[in-house]
Design brief:
Number of domains: 1
Number of strands: 0
Shape: globular
Distance between the termini: 16 Å
Radius of gyration: 19 Å
Length: 225
């Protein structure tokens, strides 16, 4: 197969990151305007950060899918990335495609429903968040399997590795940390406005974390070419 690469340089990658941040901030502001002032009437659901199949949810899914594709394409480059485990990159790519599917077809909600009868699995109020323990356990197992390849990637591409880790931490702070706070404390009527702001920050962090990961993936493609 021919050489497959991203025709990007580092300055264009930075512009991409800034543009994504600006778009994500706009989506958060539109959500807050609608929730507080009912600014968009009958089409308000299009901008709802707390619902599925909306503009923000499709944006998030597309961004996660693009991250997965960038990592998977490393297998078809010539020359291949130096000092990198193609198996690990492929696994990361497939993982982000799974997260993209999760965003669109609500896999973690289905996991909650499927395993709700297993009392030993930890969960939060009204049975929310059961998926978190399953995802966390899976992540720890995968880290144990791939830790040598991960260390090699850190040594060979320290900047990209740090950016990828930072983006992952930002994403997880929103997707897990703030999600737990929402499940446990804020999904009640008298705290509705706090919940709105929790959703705005949570979803904003998820989108921005994914943008940083995409930026790291593009920089990896540029450097390893």
């Amino acid at each position: 197969m021919g050489n497959i690469s991203l025709k990007f340089n580092s300055q264009q990658a930075k512009l991409m990151l800034r543009s994504l941040f600006a778009l994500e901030i706009c989506m958060v502001i539109l959500y807050l305007l609608d929730q507080h002032f009912h600014a968009f009437g009958k089409v308000h659901h299009i901008f709802d950060l707390d619902e599925e199949l909306t503009l923000p949810s499709w944006f998030s899914a597309a961004q996660l899918f693009l991250i997965g594709i960038v990592f998977l394409l490393q297998n078809f480059r010539f020359p291949l990335p130096k000092n990198a485990s193609l198996k690990l990159l492929s696994f990361i790519g497939l993982g982000f495609i799974f997260l993209s599917l999760d965003e669109t077809v609500m896999i973690h909600e289905r996991i909650n429903w499927t395993f709700r009868h297993l009392d030993f699995l930890p969960r939060f109020k009204r049975g929310h968040g059961l998926w978190i323990s399953i995802y966390a356990t899976t992540a720890l197992i995968l880290l144990t399997i791939w830790w040598k390849s991960i260390l090699e990637m850190w040594q060979s591409y320290p900047k990209q590795f740090i950016l990828f880790t930072l983006g992952s931490l930002i994403l997880l702070t929103g997707a897990v940390g703030l999600e737990i706070i929402g499940y446990q404390y804020l999904r009640v009527g008298e705290l509705r406005y706090l919940y709105i702001w929790e959703v705005a920050i949570e979803e904003g962090l998820e989108m921005m974390g994914a943008s940083v990961i995409l930026y790291a993936a593009v920089l990896f493609t540029i450097q390893s070419g």
